[in-house]
Amino acid sequence: MKKDEHQTERTGRIDAIIKEWKKRKAQDEAEARKAFYTPEYQEMIKQLRNENAAKGITIK
Amino acid sequence: MPQKELLLNDDEFYSFKFTGGINNVYNFITINDVFYEVRFKPSGYIFPQPSVFAKYIFEFALILVSHPNDQTKTPSDRRIPKTVFLIFLNFFERCSDNICVYICDSSDSKQFVRKKKFDQWYNDFNTGGFSKLDETFFDSSGGRYPVSVVLKANNPFKLEVFKAFSDLVIRENNEK
After folding, report:
1. How far apart are CA B148 and CA B168, in angstroms?
2. Contact B29, A49 (CB under 8 A)
3. Alpha-carbon distance B141 to B111, whole Å?
4. Which residues in chain A are closer than 8 Å to B172, comparing Cβ atoms?
5. Which residues does B7 contact at the CB level (< 8 Å), separation at least 6?
6. A 2-31 residues with CB below 8 A of B?
7. DSSP class of residue B141?
8. B114 and chain A: CB distance < 8 Å anywhere?
9. Predicted pLDDT at B9
10. Phi, psi of B131 (to 5 degrees)
11. Does residue B136 contact residue B19 with C-beta atoms inside 8 Å?
12. pLDDT band at residue A7 under the 50/70/90 scheme
């Protein structure tokens, strides 16, 4: 079947964007969760907790 | 800046740390011991590469990294929106020409809940310093993804960005 003029404009760009977005999202989450267990991140978390506590915000 | 006047007391938001890197990573931890990461990832791929503003496009992502007992449901927390907004401000202070794109996650079919929450944050905290354009991406498999573009109201590329974004959506979504 011959495509009409409108269909020929299709580039699939949004499909490509969503595909890339999903790939990057999965990578981000994996990276973030891996980093969480590193000594550097644990030290940062300790600092953030201390900074929060200094402002009167303490973990429930 | 007028936006900062909304943030009255230190105890109304969490301390956060900019750890940087190519993805402009920020981190904060909540009173419920939930650890979040905010990223602003270079995302020139969203628009055609020749565009002059491609290098200023960053995708915003809020990642729940760790939660006590691996609970999936997080309690409501009034400090999170203010913290995220402060992080937004910090990111835009690093370069006022930055352009932020937020694509709402649809993997659990809650994309429109996220969109509503994001809009509420934006409306609560934006007192005129920012502009936002909202659209929805429709992919060929029927998925719907609310997308917002946020930039400073005086961004020199504002009209070009909004036009390019609208053109992309009109061209691609109307083909269904």
Report:
1. 13
2. yes
3. 16
4. 10-14
5. B13, B82, B85, B86
6. 6-7, 9-15, 17-18, 20-21, 24-25, 28-29
7. T
8. no
9. 83
10. -125, 150
11. no
12. very low
When pLDDT is cut at 50, 70 and 90, the band that residue B141 belongs to is confident
B121 in A contact zone (CB under 8 Å): no
> Is pLDDT of B110 > 90?
no
Check if the beta carbon of residue A30 is closer than 8 Å to that of residue B61: no
Chain A neighbors of B173, CB-CB under 8 A: 14
Q: Are strands B35-42 and B16-20 parallel, antiparallel or unpaired?
A: unpaired
* Three-state SS at B129: coil
Judge whether residue B33 has pLDDT over 50. yes
The whole-number pLDDT of residue B173 equals 72
- Cα B24 from Cα B127, distance rounded (Å): 25
pLDDT tens digits, one per residue of A25-57: 999 999 999 999 999 999 999 999 999 999 998
